Amino acid sequence: MTARARAKPTTRRRIPRNGAVGEAPMSFEWKTAAADPAMRRAAWALAVWPWGMPAARPAPEADSLAVAKLRDFNAQRGCAVCTVKLFFVHLHKCGGTTVESYFRQAYGDAFLVPDTGHEGELRDALVVQNKARIRALRAFARPYRVFARHIAYGYHATVDCARPLYMTMLREPTARLLSLYGYLMFGEGKKYRRFPANATFGEFVRHRTTGTCAESTGGVYQEYCLSNYQTRKICGYYAILETAEPSEETFRCAARHLDLFFFVGTVERMQESLCALGHLLQWRFSFDAKKKLNPSAHAATTDEDLEHLVRWDRKLWHLGDRHLDETLRGLPAGTCAPPAASQRPHLKGR
């Protein structure tokens, strides 16, 4: 049976709520960890050194190890227990829904999109070391090969995977904020809208306490969705937990982790990104994902209220662009022809 035939409509798989017979559901609040120095240190360990992975720049042999993991991942199609699993860090408004549609087509029942809220539950169980809960969550995830949705770097520790393959899609940060604003402001049926219906984009980014994002629940505003969100997610769970603005240290953390990703694409180069990803994962279907970009989103940002929200994300986005260039250079000549320079406005002033 082909991958296309196996593919099913999008469904979010629910993780069993009880870790063992008679055990109550997890009630630990992640924000409790923010006030506890010990919990903060535990979160930092999870974010930067999951499974003993050093936070330093990967050794020269790291590239060959990634190639070996990718080879094994492609060879393990249909395996009962896979030793290599793929984790797609799906960032808000960064083309993730498009990419997930191809994962669903390629892997069918082996593709898991955790139900909303379960990522936090997995994370919380690790921080407080609820061993029974961790065992139950890992047992549930064992049959799956590909994980997606709005996870962060370090998620592989929650499913007991010692050989993870990470990938993500990045986006020019001003364009991402504009897209997020439109999504939350004008999208039909958005139950998370918490800012005034007549808010302008400027008000949206200046008065963030009256706004929200798609990961908020119960009216709780999570500011990290606006402030250098891509950098926080790639750095890991500690950077999401941190209430202070991201710093150069946060960026360096994200840059180190990005070096460990086997693939990084960008929304602005969606066609090239999908072509390269499909080649690496040996997908046997074509792609048609031409992204319409808002030219004004590429204008230089001078507004101080906006600049501090995108400073580190912009640096990370440029790293991602170079990461994609390196990937394309490693493919057979002519595999993924780049568009004309006139069709790549994001490179202006680079």
TrEMBL record:
- GO CC annotation terms, alphabetical: Golgi membrane
The membrane-topology field of this record reads: Single-pass type II membrane protein
Q: What are the recorded GO MF terms, alphabetically?
A: sulfotransferase activity
Organism superkingdom: Eukaryota
Question: Quick check: keyword Secreted in the entry?
Answer: no
Q: What is its main location?
A: Golgi
Name where it's found: Golgi apparatus membrane
Keyword field: Glycoprotein, Golgi apparatus, Membrane, Signal-anchor, Transferase, Transmembrane, Transmembrane helix
Q: What protein name does the entry list? A: Sulfotransferase family protein
